[in-house]
Amino acid sequence: MSTTAPRPGPSGTATAAARAAVRRGRRESAVALALGAGVPAALLLGWEAAARLGAVDPLLFPPPSKIALCLADLLGSGELGAHLGATLARLLPGYALGALAGVLVGLVMGASRHARAALGPLFAALYSVPKIATLPLLLLVFGLTETPKVLSVAITVFFVLQINTTAGVRQIDPRTLETARAYGARGPRLLRLVLLPGACPAVLTGLRTAAGLGVVVVVAVEFVASESGLGFLIWNSWTLFQPERMYAGIVAVAVLGTVFSALLALTERVAMPWRRGRDRTAA
Fold first, then answer.
1. Rounded to an integer, what distance in angstroms lies between the CA atom of residue 250 and that of residue 211?
2. Secondary structure letter of residue 146 according to DSSP
3. Highest mean predicted confidence (pLDDT) among 3-12, 126-135, 244-253
4. What is the model's pTM?
């Protein structure tokens, strides 16, 4: 009498496939994490070795260990914190002002054909102008105050959010808008129930894009029109030929941009929880 092992049924096959997919996803995540941490670490180790062996000029490219010590000294003395605070005092109000104005104008332009016809060509022309180029005009109008620096960030963020929000509203299915209007949705009600939820993905993408651009602009403004801030720290260190301090300032800017973008990414996950499930399914 011969016996054969029972074959797995459909449910067992599905469970095995799901477990294999989970293991594969974990392996891919581990590989991605190793690559993400390993490549920068390898570059830093190569830089350290090249600077100590004389392959590169240590006066121009000091080893990362010296940059880390300088960064620690700046943190310990409070100087870095003071410059970071000055940069945030310009970046955050400008970002909030530009984002709010950009979303509001984008919603109007997305919903109204006449508003797009009236403002579209003007904004297209202004968008092509480098935003740092408006700084002399702002300084001429407002003088050597904090206002031009904040407005430079606000102008940069405004155009990114206006473009993204307008595109997000226009991507809403016209049948959804017709249905909402047929049920009496007008004005603020239409905005709250249809336009904002429909444009939310594009708005959040614009917020993340504008975060990096805002950091770039505020640092550039501090290069030429400030006596404080991370941009001033970098520029002043270059002027005095203090490369360790200059690189320390660059590292601080990189960390600021990374943290700012990460916070906005977290906000996106909280605001659109359905995307988390979709991302896990795709993985």
1. 17
2. S
3. 244-253
4. 0.81
